[in-house]
Amino acid sequence: VVAGLMLASVTALTHDIYAKVVRAGEIDQARQIQLSKLAAVFLGIIVALLSIAFKGQNIAYIVSLAMAIAASTNFPLLILSMYWPGLTTRGALAGGIVGLVTAIVLVVLGPAVWVDVLGNDRPIFPQAYPALYSVSLAFFTMWLVSTLDQSEQAAQDREKFRLMEVT
């Protein structure tokens, strides 16, 4: 399981983000392999440090936090992209980023990290699970940005949704 997650993470970083977005598809295979190895080492170090920091936590709780963080980005995006014709690319990106950042910040400020890992007396955010707030904020951000987006790309996004609609 760990090897599969590491491979998926490294591939997402080097192939999907670096090669496709940063370098716009112009990267040779030797350089991509070199970056993959470097990313694997870097991610391995991060995972090792996080596992040391969270050594006293219940694994089921940590998994549920990971699911809450993933849901904060993916759930609003999937629902709105399937059922709301007004969703735009800018709205989806803005809402996904807001959901992700909100979930991570609230996890850090919550009792699992702020008290148990960092040793503070009381958490700044009292809830153990951030999903209620982060998912709601992601939905709102996607709606707001998409509603305010009057760009040519937004018009194309709305037209593409209309063309995909099955009656």
Brief synopsis:
This protein has 167 residues and is an all-alpha fold.
Descriptive labels:
single chain, 167 residues, mainly alpha, 2 domains, 77% helix
Arithmetic mean of pLDDT:
88
Number of domains: 2
Radius of gyration in whole Å, from Cα? Answer: 19 Å
The total count of helices amounts to 7
- Unreliable spans: none
Q: Please count the beta strands (DSSP E, at least 2 residues each).
A: 0
Q: Into which percentage range does the β-strand content fall? A: under 5%
Backbone structural class: mainly alpha
First and last CA, distance? 42 Å
Profile the largest sheet.
Answer: none
Subcellular location: Cell membrane
Keywords: Cell membrane, Membrane, Symport, Transmembrane, Transmembrane helix, Transport
InterPro entries: Na/Glc_symporter_sf (IPR038377), Na/solute_symporter (IPR001734), Sodium:Solute_Symporter (IPR050277)
Pfam families: SSF
Question: How would the blueprint of this fold be written?
Answer:
Elements: H1 2-22, H2 29-53, H3 59-83, H4 89-109, H5 111-115, H6 131-148, H7 152-164
Helix pairs in contact: 1-2, 3-4, 3-6, 4-6
Provide an overview of this structure.
- Helix 1 (2-22) crosses helix 2, helix 3 (59-83) runs parallel beside helix 6 and helix 4 (89-109) runs antiparallel to helix 6.
- The mean pLDDT is 88.
- The chain folds into two domains: 1-53; 57-167, no CATH class.
- The protein is mostly helical.
- It is built from seven helices and no strands.
- It starts with a helix and ends with a helix.
